[in-house]
Amino acid sequence: MRNGLTILSNLYLGHMPRLFVTVLLFLPVLLCAQHLDDYSFLRSSGNIPPDFFKSAEKKFYDNRFRILYNTKYKNRSQAEAYLRQSYFYVSELLQSGVVVFNDPISAYAKLVLNELFKDSAHIIENVRIYTVKSNQVNAYTSNDGIIFLTTGLIAKLENEAQLASILAHEVTHHHKRHIIKGYINTAKVNKKSNYNRTSISDRLFAISSYSRKLEFEADSFGGTIFLNSRYKKSEMISSLKLLTLYHTPFTNADFDPSALLPHGTKLDPAISDSTYALAPHISTDGLGTHPSIDLRIAAAERQSERVQKDDGAYYLVSESEFEKIRDIARFETIHIALIKNRVAHCIYLSSYMLNKYPDNSFLHQSIMNALYLRATQGMAGSSVENYNIGKDEGNVFKAATFLSLYSRAQYNVMALQYCEGILAPGKLGLVRELVLDLVADHSIYPGDSLVQYQREYIRKSSDQMALLFKEANEKLLTDAHIGVGDAGYFLQKKPKYKLFNKRKYDDPINILFVNPTLIDLDERTMSVNVTGNQARITKFNEVLTKNSSILGMKGIVLQAKNLTDTSTKAFNDLIAINEWMRHMDRNLIRYNGVNYSDIQRIMKEYHVEIICDVGFVSVRMDRPYLAKVVLYGGVNFLAPIFIPLCLYDLFVPNYVSYQFSRAFNLRTSKQILWSEKFMRMKSHRTLHASRTYHELYKLRRKITAEL
Questions:
Q1: For 564-578, what is each residue's pLDDT tens digit?
Q2: 109 pLDDT exceeds 80?
Q3: 532 lies in some domain
Q4: Beta partners for residue 131, in sequence order
Q5: 159-180 burial, b for 16+ CB within 10 Å, e for fewer?
């Protein structure tokens, strides 16, 4: 394998074993490698890059001169406006809790990038790669050289050469300054258009034609770099063809639900014998900002015809490492599907991955959690269409059809039975809490599970519980809770979390405020007021902690903007909390969530029991001045007394503020506060203080009522 490090080894390390050089090559990947048989969620490692904690204002002023210097003078005002907005939105994405750094995926992609541009390293001098935890099949580039790769894209790739082709395309967007050029062109079209004479479709055509021109340029320039590399030439076209299946899972393997069926039941042959093929997305060359995939594939084929032979390699860095990072992305795809309550996708993809990792605890737990959600959320009996899954998505439609056949009680049985099937001495901890939840811990509705703890209730509901008791027998319950008690334990003992929740009224209440939000929008320019945003957020955080103290609570703010380069652990905590809250928002029942072990650790380390998400969004509304002038002119002609009121409405800015608050009790895994309020006023510090005090007062009362 030839690259920069190999050349250095020939000059300076000639006396060292070749193995040492190989270790150096893969050191970034080895440092953040994961054991997939004991998989944990994708997290960041190492020091936090400045992109994540440096404010958008500082990024703007640090790069303003360099970027505007390379922009035509007449376009600098549009370029400056774009830079302010771009840095703000990129910073918000980086700090949102869905982007990770120094992870196995981005580390491997960086090695591929270095291999691809080893003869033109100056092009990628300022390029950084980060991973986005998203099931979208996408890659995109920021103006300052950040390439975002989604886990959904990596999960669908077939080889390393396809990744190299995608990276070549994205680097071209940065190198050719396509992002800022596209924005400037859009601003020009909107400015020059006479809205009385130019139709919306004409303006859209002008914008999209220019954007598609840049996209073809990225395909052409990036394709030239790829075709001149040592990668397999045909994979440039196959990487584009993957985009036609962006709406489908990463596999279309057959689905075998036999391991999930309740004992003594058989699957309808109409389902077991059915198969569904993937249908590519039908693309059209309309007014979109991107050309259709068919046109891009045709252009790539014409470019590839100039290459005499299809030589090259599928892998130049490492085939085994590629398969590892692809499997990591696939595990994350399953994890995100569970967060979004995409139960059919979660079970279907987990079953497929179990063929390769039969003893993987993460996959087994994902299936158990998915069955649990089906048992507790009342989704059984609903049609397949409620899952928004179509036959064109392949055999995941078969999984959705299977899941629509059973009642909630039957899903409870299936979940318990699945726990029983994978029980082993080393896995008792895996199913312990889940079985407790399924059998004893949840008030769903009579007839679903052992939701009460008195024998009288069970006798009253014996006819509805017959199926459950048949499967959830004493052996299952006892084996699942060795060291806790026998089966009678579940019929008599109070839930564990309720015992844990008991505490004195006078005990201090600690609240963790997670990434408080404060945004000022201007509808007239469709932009965000980024000037002084960091200072406003700092003052808002002070208001939160002060109001908490007034109400006898301790407020702790955990915000990505306040982190330093060594605060990686706190950054990963933000990711865990973000994922947990996203999942809890979708579940009305008391449910621990997909990564509750992380939440329990955070609760102990930060000494908090309440997580709160609070924020304000203020919008300066646009005014239809011409229409109002005509209307008010007529009104004032008839009634001059209204002139002051009309002048006030015409010239005084019109603001609308939106305030939201949500809070979770970590001890009970319940959402105890959700409120939102619209106000026809500008967001200011006095409003922040009064509204947050009101919400925290309600929160304090709810916590007191639970004691």
A1: 899 999 999 999 998
A2: yes
A3: yes
A4: 100, 149
A5: bbbbbbbbbbbbbbbbbebbbb
Residue % of the chain over a pLDDT of 90: 25
pLDDT digits (tens, 9 = 90+) for 530-546: 777 888 899 999 999 99
* Beta-bridge mates of residue 555: 511
3 state SS of 321: helix
Indicate whether 283 pLDDT > 80: no
- CA torsion through residues 19, 24, 26, 27, sign: positive
Task: Specify the residue for token string 């006396």.
Answer: 15
CA–CA dist 40, 621 (Å, integer) = 46
Given a contact cutoff of 8 angstroms between Cβ atoms, the answer to whether 252 and 395 are in contact is yes
585 close to 669: Cβ distance less than 8 angstroms: no
- The answer to whether residue 448 sits within a structural domain is yes
- C-alpha–C-alpha distance, residues 163 and 156, integer Å: 10
From residue 551, how far is each of 49, 385, 506, 611 by CA, in Å?
A: 37, 48, 12, 16
Residue 84 lies in a domain: yes
Count of structural domains within the chain: 4
Closest CA to 448 of 456, 458, 434, 417: 458
β-pair partners for 662? 613, 674
| The pair of three-digit structure tokens given for residue 568, joined into one six-digit string | 């990686």
Answer with the residue of higher pLDDT: 657 or 461. Answer: 657
Segment 305-314 shows an average pLDDT of 81
Euclidean distance between CA atoms 264 and 418, whole angstroms: 14
Residues 439 and 573 in one domain: no
Assess contact for 366 and 373: CB atoms under 8 A. no
Q: Which two tokens stand for residue 621?
A: 């509304």
Place of tokens 């596999």: 251
Please state, in angstroms and rounded to a whole number, the distance separating the CA atoms of residues 84 and 270: 58
pLDDT in tens, 583-630: 887 665 555 667 778 888 899 999 998 999 999 988 887 765 544 555
Confidence grade of residue 370 (pLDDT, cut at 50, 70, 90): confident
**Nearest to residue 530, comparing CAs of 92, 185, 182?**
92
Mean pLDDT for the stretch of residues 547-557: 92
Question: What Cα–Cα distance (Å) separates residue 304 from each residue in 120, 224, 236, 237?
Answer: 21, 9, 9, 9
Residue found by looking up tokens 């309309």 in the block: 286
Asked if residue 521 and residue 553 are part of one domain, the reply reads yes
Report the run of H or E that residue 611 belongs to, with start and end.
Answer: strand 610-620
Which residues neighbour 65 within 8 Å (Cβ) at sequence distance 6 or greater?
none
DSSP 431-460: HHHHHHIIIII----TTSS-----HHHHHH
Do 69 and 3 reside in the same domain of the chain? no
Question: Is residue 498 one of the residues assigned to a domain?
Answer: no
Compute the chain's Rg from CA coordinates.
Answer: 29
Q: Exposed (0-12), middle (13-18) or buried (19+): which is 266, by Cβ within 10 Å?
A: exposed
Question: Among all chains, which residue has been given the structure tokens 């050289």?
Answer: 145
What is the distance of C-alpha 45 from the center of its chain?
Answer: 18
> What is the signed CA dihedral for 314, 316, 320, 323, rounded to 10 degrees?
-50
Strand, coil or helix: 64: helix
Give residue 191's domain range.
32-246+281-319
Angle of the 361-376 helix axis to the 343-354 helix axis, nearest 10: 150
DSSP-assigned beta bridge partners for residue 619: 521, 656
Tell me what pLDDT residue 614 has: 93
pLDDT at 78 over 70: yes
